[in-house]
Amino acid sequence: MTLSAKHKAIKAFYHSRDEISHQRVTNEMGLREPFKTLLSDAARIFDLELLIEQSHRLDQRLIRFDGVIRDVFRRDRGYWEAKDQDDKLEDEIAKKFAVGYPNRNILFEDSQQAILYQHGERVGVYDLHQPEQVAQLLNTFFSYTEPMIEKFDHAVDRFRQDAPDLANGLKTLIADAHKNNKAFKAAFTQFHELCQKTLNPNLSPAAVDEMLIQHLLTERLMRTVFDNPDFSHRNAIAVEVEKIIQALTSESFSRKQFLGKLDYFYEAIEQTALTMRDFTAKQQFINTVYERFFQGYAVKVADTHGIVYTPQEIVDFMCAAVEEILEKEFQKSLWHEDENIIDPATGTGNFIVNLLKRIKACLPDKLEEVYQHRLFANEVMLMPYYNRVAEH
């Protein structure tokens, strides 16, 4: 995928820049608008996204980028820094690197020229008056992929091929256990009855089988990505599922050996998650991983059930709407003593985190009280969620 010098996004860039030139704009905020629009338009062509004014914490310092390029997994793929014409671009670059700005794929520009660094080295200097050089700059910038990201993408593609066979293998093992494993049958029956009583009286045994497979294949991700080694011991559902799995593994089935076939997939995800210091970014990352996970191992289930995690923008809108209705219609707040927050299908906690952040922003003294006494949810990750919100 490449952009040509005659692409409409580049033509629009020059048209917009000419208009600003006629207005004699020289400050950074004004000058950067045409290039910002160009980056945004070009990013979409490469299935990427430009986010403006993003802060990263680095060694107890906050550094703020004019723009960050992110992919569907919420991984940083590149950075943009804009300067005005009164700045000496070389001096400004030296200052940024001196305070720790990354040099793996970062673009500096002052509306006249752009300087691109990749993998710690200067790739080139580009004349922004020349459409051919602008196209070359954009193609080089957006097509750059770090080795770790290449490894991750390869692992995801490989998983799509391997997962169906692994899932079918688990289905066969479980089917055999239903026939021949007394301990498994007893634990399964007990759990199935509990689910029918507490979740859905019409829940089928096949649905519980599916639950077991999902838990076996994803438990490690929830435990390691969110640094929560007690995941399987704190979550009420997970505790019961583990009892069935222990019965399953008691006869001729090694969980470690079986799932070892997916080590390449787990390790690629875990290594990528380690680069994400922000808890919200990890949430968005694991959301996308789960969507790809289901699309890889259970395509029919994903299509039938519409397994797509709620985008953060929709989560924010829904939580804001609830907060506004509480205030306007009932004269109450999220932290009011009469209000409870119930989320029985917490999953990766998008709604819980959003609500906790809202409470902390308005009345931080109420955060612990709400968490301890008025928050009812599936306890998959609640303690880590609360800790992250309380700390930050």
Write structural notes for this entry.
It is a single chain. With 392 residues, this protein is of the alpha/beta class. The chain contains 17 helices and 8 strands. The chain has helices at residues 8-22, 28-45, 89-98, 131-143, 147-180, 182-198, 205-225, 231-234, 236-249, 255-259, 263-274, 279-297, 299-305, 312-330, 350-362, 367-373, 382-391; strands at 49-58, 61-70, 76-82, 105-109, 113-118, 121-127, 341-343, 375-377. It has a 6-stranded mixed sheet, covered by helices on one side. The protein has a two-stranded parallel sheet with strand order 7-8. Strand 5 (113-118) and strand 6 (121-127) form a beta hairpin. The chain starts with 7 loop residues before the first helix and ends with a helix. 29% of the residues are buried.
Distance between the termini: 40 Å
Strand content: 5-15%
Instruction: Please trace the helix and strand order, writing H or E for each element.
Output: HHEEEHEEEHHHHHHHHHHHEHHEH
Oligomer: single chain
Query: pLDDT average, as an integer?
Result: 80
For the record, the count of structural domains works out to: 3
Number of strands: 8
Q: Can you tell me the overall shape?
A: globular
Helix content: 55-70%
Side-by-side strand order of the widest sheet: 1-2-3-4-5-6
Rg from alpha-carbon coordinates = 25 Å
Structure classification: alpha/beta
Main sheet properties:
6 strands, mixed
Low-confidence regions: 302-307
Question: How many helical elements?
Answer: 17
